[in-house]
Structure to design on (254 residues):
């Protein structure tokens, strides 16, 4: 279910209607802010005319995700072959690359060649947290679409209206979700359902929130350290266990 981003829905509908879609986009922004869900919904819109994910199969889209922690050059070559074919139902053959920060150097170079000379009727969407994880030559050729965090009020309203969460619970979950709808849904689904494994990013965010509530001025240096760690975890493919030990050691020495 796509929540929010109404302005982007209208913008992409208009681009399709007027035939003004770019050939390559970068969807970027914090994790769990709707980038991938928007891409899926857009894929359904291109083939079926409805800006929402349905159970109907798609034939003019190919999804590319990491294998063993990376996206290699062979995956990009497969995308090129797919994009070179004529679309059957959609106006474009669409390739969606999730976690684009995991593209290897060779894969990024291969992707650059596709973007520089795109096959007719092709469309590429890369999804990443931070634009700077991509090589400048590739980044410069992508139309960039930013997905911001939700406000607490927006999150709480979405939880109440779309998921029937009681208002008080919705406000509490929104406060703990750092503006991320995906995180908010994980929190409400963890109550009475299967609990998802907590990631190192979750731990960092909880530490940041705890220090912030105890006083940003008093804990300024620790907050700066944790925020820097958080950025690096999202930007690079790091060993979470080693990062966790480093954070605990740093904070215990304070």
């Amino acid at each position: 279910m796509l929540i929010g981003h109404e302005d982007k829905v209208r913008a992409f509908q208009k681009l399709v209607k007027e035939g003004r879609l770019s050939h390559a986009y970068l969807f970027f922004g914090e994790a769990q802010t709707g980038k991938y869900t928007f891409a899926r919904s857009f894929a359904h819109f291109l083939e079926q005319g409805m800006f929402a994910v349905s159970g109907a199969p798609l034939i003019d889209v190919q999804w590319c995700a990491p294998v063993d922690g990376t996206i290699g050059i062979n995956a990009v070559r497969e995308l090129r072959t797919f994009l070179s074919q004529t679309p059957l139902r959609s106006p474009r053959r669409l390739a969606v690359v999730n976690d684009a920060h995991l593209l290897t150097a060779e894969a990024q170079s291969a992707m650059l060649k596709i973007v520089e000379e795109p096959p007719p009727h092709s469309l590429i969407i890369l999804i990443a947290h931070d634009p700077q994880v991509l090589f400048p030559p590739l980044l410069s050729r992508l139309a960039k679409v930013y997905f911001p965090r939700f406000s607490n009020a927006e999150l709480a309203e979405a939880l109440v209206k779309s998921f029937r969460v009681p208002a008080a619970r919705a406000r509490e979950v929104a406060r703990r979700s750092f503006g991320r709808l995906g995180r908010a849904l994980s929190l409400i689904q963890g109550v009475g359902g299967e609990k998802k494994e907590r990631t190192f990013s979750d731990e960092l965010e909880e530490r940041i929130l705890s220090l912030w509530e105890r006083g940003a001025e008093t804990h300024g240096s620790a907050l700066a350290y944790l925020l820097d760690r958080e950025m690096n975890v999202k930007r690079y493919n790091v060993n979470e266990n080693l990062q966790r030990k480093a954070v605990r050691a740093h904070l215990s020495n304070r």
The radius of gyration is 20 Å. The beta strands are 24-28, 61-64, 93-97, 122-128, 143-146.
